[in-house]
Write a structure and sequence with these properties.
globular; single chain; about 300 residues; Rossmann fold; 8 strands; 8-stranded mixed sheet; about 15% strand; alpha/beta
Length: about 300
């Protein structure tokens, strides 16, 4: 009888931990959908609503903002729980500032966010397809005009990872990237026992088709063949600045730039805090990756 009771108790403990891990996996992959608040029209900008398909047949939605005589197109990739109009990070204002400085802008919602379709967060594994599809759309629309990726948080990590796969871009601005999705999730779950966290990662892959080990910019940043501007607040409490420092160290590309911002604890919000300084850094970097001689050589899209 005691052996039976012990076995039942053991099964109950195992079942409890399995259910806890499953709940955690579900929370990791639950769609972080927020409403898109505002449009570029609210800031007096002309824009076009667009939608496009990913390789796995999801419909993503975004905006294309045209700047006559543009020197490049900037693709803006929002953060993990954001949208193309993220108010906390000032993405609508950022779109306006790029257009005013002579750049086309393409901003879109990742799958499961904003107005794009998708029922689950792919933890970066599936979202790479979103950015690849966005770049392909921009390329079809703008011909050979240079493309720059500007990502925030998850969007920054995706930009690095996709650039490492040879996406058609001339530069990457990575604001507050993490070095791997798994480390990012672990940092957000500090009180979860390590064994339970690992089991949750396995369940996320098995039951929700989202592998948190797939998005690892730290493992591929040395394959990025274009310059990267790394930006990070030194006091970031969501993604520690060590993630960006490790990425920059692993890259070893002499063309890269690293801008760490002292005495700031906000995540991906330095554009809002110091707009002119932030834009100055970004435009200076784009001047590096889209030199005048390249612009003169670009044929016009028909």
């Amino acid at each position: 009888m005691l052996l039976i009771l012990a076995a039942l108790l053991l099964l109950a403990v195992v079942a409890f931990h399995a259910l806890a891990a499953l709940y955690l996996a579900e929370s990791f992959t639950r769609s972080k959908r927020r409403r898109v608040q505002g449009t570029p029209g609210d800031l007096g900008l002309r824009y076009e609503d667009v939608q496009f398909l990913t390789a796995d047949r999801l419909v993503l939605r975004g905006w294309f903002l045209d700047s006559p005589g543009a020197r490049a197109t900037v693709i803006i990739v929002h953060d993990h729980e954001g949208t193309r109009a993220d108010q906390e990070q000032g993405l609508l204002r950022l779109q306006r500032d790029y257009v005013r400085r002579g750049f086309n802008v393409f901003a879109f919602d990742l799958r499961g966010r904003g107005e794009s379709t998708g029922r689950r967060d792919g933890l970066g594994q599936a979202e790479r397809l979103d950015l690849q599809a966005a770049a392909a759309y921009v390329r079809r629309r703008t011909g050979s005009l240079p493309i720059v990726l500007h990502g925030f948080g998850l969007g920054a990590a995706l930009s690095i990872a996709v650039a490492a796969r040879g996406i058609d871009a001339v530069g990457v601005i990575a604001d507050s990237s993490f070095s791997s999705m798994q480390e990012y999730l672990r940092y957000r779950s500090p009180h979860v026992p390590r064994y339970l966290f690992r089991l949750a990662c396995i369940f996320a892959r098995r039951f929700f088709h989202a592998d948190p080990t797939e998005l690892r910019p730290i493992a591929v940043v040395d394959r990025v063949e274009v310059p990267v501007l790394f930006i990070h607040a030194e006091g970031d409490t969501v993604v520690p600045v060590s993630h960006t420092l490790n990425l920059a160290a692993a890259s070893l590309d002499p063309r890269d730039r690293v801008w760490t911002i002292p005495d700031v604890v906000d995540h991906c919000r330095h554009y809002v805090r110091a707009t002119e300084t932030y834009m100055g850094r970004c435009i200076s970097f784009i001047d590096q990756v889209v030199p005048t001689r390249l612009l003169e050589a670009q044929p016009q899209a028909v």
